[in-house]
């Protein structure tokens, strides 16, 4: 979209508008092979600009709401869900990201557990999509999703964020499936089990996965501190 | 500072204002023992709120300037310096961080090499301070500095950002001094040399540190990709 000179000078006189956008990831089974894959909810735009394109949940920041509260509200309104992990991602403030006015979007990202994600609302204007291979989204939302995926991959490789995509108890194979879904490649099961057993942050339970197998796999539990995964001195604040 | 009811309702009707703040770190010798320590430049407030307190360089975001450009401009105006590393830190948007109006500050942080930092302007209203043990700053700027320090410590421990605080050539002891200044503790020199020699990202030069010692130490050079240190898919954009 090109912007004429009149429009440019008009924009230059208006202060930038602040908005919140939220990238919400959850694991859902691939409809074909059934393995867990990364999905996210999107909202269909019902007006211009970008009418009928899908966009990240969000909206303008109101004067009386903290950034964190506004992000939590958009997540709740879109999906009805409480996230297991919720963190500020980045402020996107390019000059041309919105055609009519200058909008600076502070993006948040959230992880939702699969048992929660299964309960998520899906309506005519709210849909869940696979995170890889998205169509063209409104504004610069493809770039925001790409950046959130990059952060998620980093956090999974160097942190213990994988457990925020799982329920409270899980098998070692389920942890591997999270890594595979996030990193987009298969991992060697024996190596991965060995690596995982050596980490101090998970412990065996006395329970086994239900489901009538001959040798049901053991369930484990995450015991690491949630604070380690988060934003250091900002973990407790908005 | 307490805000009366009239003030609250007035604030609730005004959209939040956007500002940029920049935390700029450089190494400077400790005036006592001479070892490199972390310093940052601050600007004295010449009007209310927080008149006469020191604050981070920054100011309101103008409509025609990208976030990155606004951050680079405040850095240039305050110190006259070009940073070796410059990255978005976090958006601070608490409701009560500024008494008169709601201000959301997008904070950036930058690293400046010591040869550059030595050239930095110091005036009546711009001073350099040690990053540890700051007095009470304006707004929530102590919290912003604490968070930038936390990010810097993380990046030094898990990345190769230490080289952004050094000149193009350096001794292994100078790298250790960066780590010691950032982490705030002494490291074992022999272990550290061994660890550093094993990293693929630095290489020997044929030069030695000038200065008339009997056995002058060898100079090294950083050869890793700058992009690895940066913000992944956002390294090239604003």
From TrEMBL, chains A, B:
The keyword Transcription regulation does not apply. Keywords: Hydrolase. Residues 15-153 form the Nudix hydrolase domain. Pfam families: NUDIX, WHD_NrtR. GO terms for molecular function: hydrolase activity. This is NUDIX hydrolase. It comes from Arthrobacter deserti.
